[in-house]
UniProtKB/TrEMBL annotation:
One Pfam family named in its UniProt record: CTP_transf_like
Transmembrane segments: none
Gene3D superfamilies attached to this UniProt entry: HUPs (3.40.50.620)
Gene Ontology MF, one: ATP binding
Organism listed in the record: Chitinivorax tropicus
Family: Belongs to the NadD family.
UniProt xrefs under InterPro entries: Cyt_trans-like (IPR004821), NadD/NMNAT (IPR005248), Rossmann-like_a/b/a_fold (IPR014729)
Protein's name in the database: Probable nicotinate-nucleotide adenylyltransferase
Biological process, per Gene Ontology: NAD+ biosynthetic process
């Protein structure tokens, strides 16, 4: 029997700014799935929210400061340099072309993002391109979260749901795995608000990222 391939992780976000909530779920995914590589992908121009207050380049620079010494996380700037809206389906299509048809790809999203998946461009094509791992997030009702899913998403979830992380190495795409991760009630919104009120977000994000925010006077009002 051929040896299963190590899945490749993919984690996109606005990262305005990146914080320990993001970094912790990325680390837990790496450990649980035995990933050798996770692409950390700051969004360029997001289709789904107002233009972030900080440029994609600066959000990417903060993400780089957060992961530059990590042995398995690579900062992937393909969305930062893309013209126009950044759709995840396009990013996954490009990664699928890079890695070939057999490589298991695993897209990491938080539970709040997964609940909004039907609003994503060509959302049902995402399941053909990658597995989706859904990290629990404080504030999202995880024990009854199926009740919060729109019916079409629930149908996909019930069809694709699996609880065995090892199963993701056995197919290139198509499964949905909920992941009970350490719950860190941190959001970029809260960090931006703290800075605006001259309160320190220290210990919610890496020191190097906080220094960058201070040096560039980000989020001050
Ligand atoms: N504390 C957290 N725990 C689990 N998942 C998280 C956490 N923070 C963010 N995520 C997930 O990380 C991805 C990127 O999130 P994003 O960059 O929008 O951060 P955010 O903190 O939600 O930002 P904002 O407050 O600006 O909306 C999303 O899939 C989101 O669900
Ligand atoms: O492709 C889409 O239509 C789409 C719609 C909403 C969100 N996304 C992606 O989901 C990821 C998390 O988004 P956010 O807003 O929680 O930072 C990020 O990589 C976005 O590009 C993608």
């Amino acid at each position: 029997m051929p040896k299963p391939l190590h899945p490749v992780g993919i984690f996109g976000g606005t990262f305005n700014p990146i914080h320990f909530g993001h970094l912790r779920i990325a680390q837990e995914l790496i450990d649980i799935l035995g990933l050798k590589r996770l692409h950390l992908i700051p969004t360029g121009t997001p289709p789904h929210r107002a233009e972030p207050s900080v440029t994609a380049r600066q959000r990417a620079e903060m993400a780089m400061l957060a992961v530059q010494d990590h042995p398995h996380i690579v900062l992937d700037e393909r969305e930062v340099v893309r013209e126009g809206f950044c759709y995840t389906v396009d990013t996954l299509t490009a990664l699928r072309a890079d890695y070939g048809p057999d490589q298991p790809l695993v897209l990491l999203v938080g539970a709040d993002a997964f609940l909004g998946l039907m609003g994503w461009h060509r959302w049902s094509a995402l399941f053909e391109l990658a597995h989706i791992v859904v990290a629990h997030r404080p504030g999202v009702l995880t024990h009854t979260w199926q009740d919060a899913m729109p019916i079409e998403l629930l149908r996909e979830y019930e069809h694709r749901h699996c609880d065995d992380a090892a199963a993701l190495a056995l197919a290139p795409a198509g499964r949905v795995l909920p992941l009970a991760v350490t719950q860190l009630d941190i959001s970029s919104t809260a960090i931006r608000q703290m800075v605006a009120k001259t309160r320190s977000p220290r210990y919610l994000l890496p020191d190097a990222v906080l220094r960058y925010i201070e040096e560039h006077s980000l989020y001050v009002e």
